[in-house]
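Co-fold these.
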Amino acid sequence: MDFAIEPLAEDALLLRFGDAIDATLNARVHGAARAIRAANLPGIVDVAPAYATLLVRFDSRFRGVDALPEAITKVLHDAFSRDHASGATTLAGSPAQHAEIPVCYGGGFGPDLDAIAQRAGATPGEVAARHAAAEYTVAMLGFAPGFAYLLGMDPALHAPRRAHPRTRVPAGSVAIGGAQTGIYPRELPGGWNLIGRTPLALFDPDREPPCLLAPGDRVRFRAISEDEFRRLAERGA
Amino acid sequence: MEVIKPGLLTTFQDAGRPGYAHLGIGRSGAFDASARRIANALCGNRDEACALEITLSGPCLRVRDATCIAVTGAPVPFRIDDVERPMWAPVQVPSGATIELGAMRTGCRSYLAVRGGFDVAPVLGSRSVDVNAKLGPHAGRALRAGDVLPLATSGAAGDVHARGTWWIDPRPWSTLDSRQPLRLLPGRHLDALAAASRESLFSEAFRVHPDSNRTGLRLDGPSLELAHVEMTSEGCVPGVLQLPPSGQPIAFGPECPVSGGYPRIGQIAAVDLPRLAQLRPGDALRFMPCTFPEALHALRERGRTLEALLASIAARLAP
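Predicted complex below.
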């Protein structure tokens, strides 16, 4: 498997698998993250995937850290040869979690759905159906706690960010930004196009795990009515 | 302990919240980490106890029961019941007394530790406030007037009473001399800088922009030109020197995002992060090139000196 290890800081390495937003590349990053976590190398504190890179932070006081790049290389090569022997090529063989996110599309919850539909030359209902038809992968989390960047959206739904970002995007908003879709875990400023809202709490620091979605998870959206939204929201879904 | 006046930005900070970067959650934690640790040690606290991080202008606090506190970091006028008290020392506070921290004239961040620590519930393993993420005690906000800060009644070691007056030499821990450059490790895109810009990065002075905070310090100075680089959002840590299209770099602090999409021209050596923490808007700073082996060596040396100091403080407090 092709990757480079770059020193980022005294206590951080960046494993680089490429430079693009690409599903295969991203799957490799998640595979590497799982292999490194499973290897339980002493001193490692954080293993955080991005699109094409993996951040590894360690305790720089730990004596063995000078040997970490070597140890990580060995772990990944071993994992990759195992994968290779079984016919896989991406180091993505380990099972991912599946999540279903109920979304009430359009209306007050998705004020930009009509504009997206117009762009795509489709009806708002068709856009919602297409958005809910795909299976997505959590490429990475960032921007705010629990904010998941999802890959796998129908290219017809791609839409540039808004020229004027909103200062307040409500929690649970499901949105489109470029080729990606995502869910705002709490009220935040944001420039993505809002197409719907989920009643689920994406982030709750008092819950274990605090985030509904983790890197590498598979996600599907299910269209729900406003009534169902209210019922789920009341149940504290 | 009751907050009479909160100061400009006063937050609970401990060593931070590691282990959650993959969920988009940064570490936060004290910006000047060594100053926080020394303040704790002077009160006989465990290293992980949380302290108050005070920014530019300090709070006014009233204690109910007698205790002991220590103030470290940037020099700040420090009075108890209108009597000036020393920083970098364990200081007795009588019951009902008022602690007043004034405005800093140099430096940016001071730390106040109290014996036993503040008894606030950790969030995701840490009592550090992350203002951006709204995480930590008080739902991740700074202190407000009227807040009552619960103090832990146990968990401190040693005897801070009846030891006479003593303090430690703050000089190794509060270098505010801006002529002394910050050590800068090469970032991935350093070589993409135009030759003249790379020269300016290490030869000219930058100034801290007023719009700077714990997320990052915006630096005014020579405009830096970078060749176009293809990149996607990738992992980010405190100390990263990022170059947005404006050409004015940003030096990331403890509340920086866990990922960033702008080119990375450098990484401030960890040993110099406490000095970055003490730069205030308008302050000048310079960079000097540094290698990873040099930075690691300096960091370990510094770590040993700090551990030795903490041990000597603990020995001094030992009954």
